[in-house]
């Protein structure tokens, strides 16, 4: 017989998208970008090396893409541009 192992899964993380919410719990920058790409159906161009060691926690709810990017840029020194024709966001570290 196979043993069943019960693991505690934080169902909030998995069901929240149904309520139009994205919950972030120490999400790395690349993970966050992947999730945003799927969420907003865009492509995000950036160099992972520029954003190592960045983590995000929080809840994104009903924000527009621009609002989310503003949020991301308050947490990290980034600049971003969005091309609405190609639906590509380009992110670069902010020049010091």
What does this structure look like?
This protein has a three-stranded mixed sheet, covered by helices on one side. A two-stranded antiparallel ribbon has the order 1-3. It contains three helices and five strands, in the order αβαββαββ. It is of the alpha+beta class and 96 residues long. The chain is globular, with a radius of gyration of 16 Å.
Quick one: how many beta strands?
5
Query: What is the H/E string?
Result: HEHEEHEE
Give helix % range.
25-40%
Distance separating the two termini: 61 Å
Given the helix and strand composition, which structural class is it? alpha+beta
Summarize the structure.
The protein has helices at 11-15, 29-40, 65-75, and strands at 21-28, 43-45, 55-61, 78-83, 88-93. It has 96 residues and is α+β, with helices and mostly antiparallel strands.
Salient structural properties:
alpha+beta; 3-stranded mixed beta sheet; two-stranded antiparallel ribbon; 96 residues; 5 strands; 31% strand; 3 helices
Topology readout:
Layout: H1 11-15, E1 21-28, H2 29-40, E2 43-45, E3 55-61, H3 65-75, E4 78-83, E5 88-93
Parallel strand pairs: 2-5
Antiparallel strand pairs: 1-3, 4-5
């Amino acid at each position: 017989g196979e043993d069943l192992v019960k693991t505690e899964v934080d169902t909030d993380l998995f069901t929240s998208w149904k309520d139009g919410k994205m919950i972030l719990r120490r999400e790395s920058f690349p993970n966050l970008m992947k999730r945003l790409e799927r969420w907003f159906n865009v492509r995000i161009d950036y160099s992972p090396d520029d954003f190592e060691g960045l983590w995000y926690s929080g809840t994104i709810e009903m924000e527009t893409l621009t609002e989310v990017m503003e949020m991301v840029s308050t947490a990290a020194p980034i600049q971003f541009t969005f091309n609405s024709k190609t639906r590509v966001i380009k992110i670069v570290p902010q020049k010091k």
